[in-house]
Amino acid sequence: MDIIVKKFEPSLNAAAVAIWNEVVEEGMAFPQTETLDHPSGLAFFSEQSFTGVAVDQESGQAVGLYILHPNNVGRCGHICNASYAVKSGLRGQHIGETLVRHCMEAAKDLGFRVLQFNAVVRTNAPALALYRRLGFVQLGIIPGGFRRKDGRYEDIIPHYHVL
Fold this sequence. Notes:
Elements: E1 3-7, H1 13-26, H2 38-47, E2 50-56, E3 62-70, E4 79-86, H3 95-109, E5 114-121, H4 125-133, E6 137-138, E7 142-147, E8 153-162
Parallel strand pairs: 4-5
Antiparallel strand pairs: 1-2, 2-3, 3-4, 5-8, 6-8, 7-8
Helix pairs in contact: 1-2
Protein name: GNAT family N-acetyltransferase
InterPro entries: Acyl_CoA_acyltransferase, GNAT_dom, Mito_N-acetyltransferase
Pfam families: Acetyltransf_1 (PF00583)
């Protein structure tokens, strides 16, 4: 699979909404509980500082995405936050790594100095391994910081990377 990351455009909205909603409905990674529809997805992805969509160049199919935005405002506005989603049947093929690496460059280009993840769920072993491999620093553990779809609570592990 030959993946490129494109800047979000309205023609990618249906695919981006489907990928995003898949992760939300799984209830294992994103804090969101509400899914997006076409209009809310278009607004959501367009309002980010940057939304990148991973596209397989051979098939033209969107296979993942990320959103990038400030983590805070004012004196902490130089710290950004991001979320990543990869189509479930394609996970484990380094699409997430491509997204994170692209995101880090996009964040630098936008003038951010630090990329921070507020809520990496402790049971998300692939994400934790990727962030460790890319040099992210683990900040600690917040016990029970994430409520899974089934109502159980999982620990979250914030991370950061100086850009």
